[in-house]
Write a structure and sequence with these properties.
The protein is mainly alpha-helical. The protein contains five helices and no strands. α2 crosses α4. The longest helix is centred in the C-terminal third of the chain and has 62 residues. It is elongated, with a radius of gyration of 41 Å.
């Protein structure tokens, strides 16, 4: 029993000594005992990745990329041999395009993840607003029903008019037999 308690105490000490994470859905920035990487601001990096992803999704990027590829191919096919830097199979061009794609894909995914997080927060806010609207509507419905119920017990103008007409009719009916006598 003491060995177990000692183990629990040691585990508690380790968890207290380690860096405390405020959110469990985000990876730790530093691990104890390993080489620590340089720190960076994830928010600034996320904003930069969104800007790059937005640029990669435009027609302007496609036009610029097409212009660069055309110049690259023209340079390496039309100019003399001594100034060419990438011969016909254009292996260096393939490498550059692969490198661009290998960086673009994670940046686009990071931007999509950030957008998903914003969408999730907006959806939660919309759901809370919708719940409040439903509660307000139910409250107003109960209030209107209570007012209708209360008005049902109050004599309205139409009710009084119909009662007076029926009373006047009864009075006239009573007068007629007495007049005939």
């Amino acid at each position: 029993m003491r060995g177990r308690e000692g183990g629990r105490e040691r585990r508690a000490e380790i968890s207290v000594a380690g860096p405390a994470r405020t959110r469990l859905d985000q990876p730790r920035t530093a691990r104890p005992g390993l080489i620590s990487l340089p720190a960076y601001d994830p928010e600034a990096f996320g904003k930069l990745s969104e800007r790059i992803a937005r640029f990669l999704g435009t027609g302007r990027f496609i036009v610029w990329m097409t212009v660069v590829i055309i110049i690259w191919v023209a340079w390496n096919t039309l100019l003399p041999e001594n100034v060419r830097f990438d011969s016909y199979p254009f292996i260096f061009l393939t490498l550059v395009l692969s490198l661009q794609a290998s960086y673009a894909a994670p940046l686009i995914l990071l931007a999509q993840n950030r957008q998903d997080n914003r969408d999730r927060v907006n959806m939660e806010q919309d759901r809370a607003r919708s719940d409040r609207n439903i509660a307000d509507t139910e409250y107003l419905t109960r209030e209107v029903a209570a007012l209708r119920h209360g008005l049902g017990e109050v004599a309205t103008r139409d009710f009084i008019r119909s009662e007076l007409q029926s009373l006047l009719k009864e009075i006239e009916d009573r007068r007629e037999p007495s007049e005939t006598l």
